[in-house]
Design brief:
The two termini are 27 Å apart. The chain has one domain. It has 148 residues and is mainly β. The protein is 3% helix and 51% strand. The protein is globular and about 40 Å long. The chain has an eight-stranded antiparallel β-barrel. Strand 7 and strand 8 form a beta hairpin. Bound molecules: manganese (II) ion. Manganese (II) ion binds next to strand 2.
């Protein structure tokens, strides 16, 4: 787990995003999904794992029906403090644009390997079992998010 990439991409004198640090793993892990109006509108799925928020950018709206799949591009780990961030990332800064919290809640990881994570979400919009996995034929950072 490392926040080096996250911190290198941002100027904390210019953005209100948290600089953050690696936290102790919470007893009640959380997830958050940000809706992000950057150069391309997308959603950011963030799962609390080992003291950071593992993050994926999801270009289409997150899957709500069983069997729905969405491409999810893995991005840099974000600090746990990012879970409550929302606001405007200024012009010229990485990810410039509006960020809102689209959903959040409890996270339960039920299975985890290098290339796949199974989990249960208890959010307002997303509830139930999900999986995210990296198909071996896909680009390195491309994963699939699936509603079970
Ligand atoms: Mn984003």
């Amino acid at each position: 787990m490392s926040l080096t990439t996250y911190q290198k991409k941002r100027k904390f004198t210019k953005t209100l995003e948290p600089k953050g640090k690696i936290a102790k793993g919470g007893k009640e892990p959380i997830f958050v999904i940000h809706e992000h109006w950057a150069s391309h509108h997308h959603y950011d799925l963030r799962l609390e794992i080992e003291g950071v928020l593992k993050s994926w950018a999801v270009p289409k709206s997150p899957p709500k029906k069983a069997g729905e799949k969405r491409l999810a591009i893995q991005v840099e780990d974000h600090p746990l403090a990012y879970k409550s961030f929302h606001g405007i990332i200024p012009e010229g800064q990485y990810g410039a644009g509006k960020v809102e919290i689209w959903d959040k809640g409890k996270l339960e990881i039920t299975e985890k390997t290098t290339n796949s994570i199974k989990f249960i979400l208890q959010g307002k919009k997303l509830k139930g079992k999900f999986g995210i996995f990296h198909p071996p034929t896909f680009d390195k950072k491309s994963w699939l998010l699936v509603k079970k």
